[in-house]
C-alpha cells in the first residue's frame, strides 16, 4: 500500500447543480454495483446518467448488463497494451462519451497516473471493507480470517495508491458467529449497493472539500 500524501484542505467540490452529471463506469466482472448505480439513477435518487460502461475484459458480464439497459459499452483489453497506452485509450473513450465522473465497479486493476490525473478527485471506488483495514483483493475473506467482529464497505475517491484515497461514505456490517466468508461478503454487498449511490448523490448535490484522508461535506 503506497503512502497517501496530505496536502491539507483543498478547494471545495461543487455544490448543488442543475442537470445530471455524466458518469463512466469501469468494471471487470459481473457489475452488480454498476447495476445498483444505474437503478438509483433511473429512480432519480442520484442526479446522474451513466453514459459509458468500460471494461478491460471483452467478455465481462457487466458489459451485457449495460447493453440490456441501452447504455453504450466499450472494451479496451490489457493484452498487447502497456498500462500507459491502455489508460490513454480509456481516457479518450471516457472523454468522448462526455463523462465528467468515473465510478469503479469491480475494476480489478490499480489505476495509473494517466487515468487518475485526467479526472482528479472525480474517480470513485467502492471497497468491501472498512478502510484503512484490509485493502486490496479478497477484503471480506481477509476480515473474516482476521476474526473481526465488524466489517463493512467504504466509498472513497481514488488516488495513486491502493485503496488509500479520501473516504466519502462507510457502512458497517456485523460479523455473525455463524458467518462464512461467503455469507459475510453477501451482506457487505447489500450495503455496497446502498453506500455507492449515497456517496455519489452527496458529491453531486452538496458542497464538499478534502481534508487529509476524508471528504467533508458542508
Describe this structure in words.
By secondary structure, this protein is α/β, with parallel strands linked by helices. The chain has 2 domains: 20-120, Rossmann fold; 125-218, 3-Layer(aba) Sandwich (Rossmann fold), CATH 3.40.50.170. The chain has 6 helices and 9 strands. It has a 7-stranded mixed β-sheet with strand order 3-2-1-4-5-6-7, with helices on both faces. Strands 8-9 form a two-stranded antiparallel sheet. Helix 2 (61-68) links the parallel strand 2 (48-55) and strand 3 (73-75). The longest helix has 25 residues, at 181-205. Mean pLDDT is 91; it is low at 1-12 and 14-18.
Note the topology.
Layout lengths: L20 E7 L4 H11 L5 E8 L5 H8 L4 E3 L7 H15 L3 E4 L8 H4 L6 E5 L11 H8 L3 E8 L9 E8 L6 H25 L2 E4 L2 E4 L1
Parallel strand pairs: 1-2, 1-4, 2-3, 4-5
Antiparallel strand pairs: 5-6, 6-7, 8-9
SSE sequence, one letter per element: EHEHEHEHEHEEHEE
**Biggest β-sheet: strands ordered side by side in the sheet:** 3-2-1-4-5-6-7
Low-confidence stretches: 1-12, 14-18
Query: What would the principal axes of the Cα set say about the shape?
Result: globular
CATH architecture of the largest domain: 3-Layer(aba) Sandwich
Question: What is the CATH C level class of the largest domain, in words?
Answer: Alpha Beta
- CATH topology title of the largest domain: Rossmann fold
Note the gap between the termini.
Answer: 30 Å
Alpha-carbon Rg, integer: 17 Å
Query: What is the helical fraction, as a range of percent?
Result: 25-40%
Kindly give the count of domains: 2
According to DSSP, the number of beta strands is: 9
* CATH homologous superfamily placement of the largest domain: Formyl transferase, N-terminal domain
Amino acid at each position: 500500500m503506497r503512502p497517501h500524501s496530505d496536502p491539507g484542505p483543498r478547494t471545495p467540490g461543487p455544490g448543488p447543480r442543475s442537470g445530471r452529471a455524466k458518469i463512466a463506469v469501469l468494471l471487470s466482472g459481473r457489475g452488480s454495483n454498476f447495476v445498483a448505480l444505474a437503478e438509483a439513477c433511473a429512480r432519480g435518487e442520484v442526479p446522474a446518467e451513466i453514459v459509458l460502461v468500460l471494461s478491460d475484459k471483452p467478455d465481462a458480464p457487466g458489459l451485457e448488463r449495460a447493453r440490456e439497459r441501452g447504455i453504450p459499452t466499450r472494451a479496451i483489453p490489457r493484452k498487447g497494451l502497456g498500462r500507459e497506452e491502455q489508460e490513454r485509450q480509456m481516457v479518450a473513450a471516457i472523454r468522448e462519451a462526455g463523462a465528467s465522473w468515473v465510478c469503479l465497479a469491480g475494476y480489478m486493476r490499480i489505476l495509473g497516473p494517466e487515468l487518475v490525473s485526467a479526472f482528479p478527485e472525480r474517480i470513485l471506488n467502492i471497497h468491501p471493507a472498512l478502510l484503512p483495514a484490509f485493502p486490496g483483493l479478497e477484503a471480506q475473506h481477509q476480515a473474516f480470517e482476521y476474526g473481526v467482529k465488524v466489517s463493512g464497505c467504504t466509498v472513497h475517491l481514488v488516488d495513486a495508491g491502493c485503496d488509500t484515497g479520501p473516504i466519502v461514505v462507510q457502512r458497517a456490517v456485523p460479523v455473525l458467529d455463524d458467518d462464512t466468508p461467503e455469507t459475510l461478503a453477501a451482506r457487505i454487498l447489500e450495503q455496497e449497493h446502498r453506500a455507492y449511490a449515497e456517496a455519489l448523490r452527496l458529491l453531486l448535490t452538496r458542497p464538499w472539500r478534502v481534508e487529509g484522508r476524508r471528504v467533508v461535506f458542508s
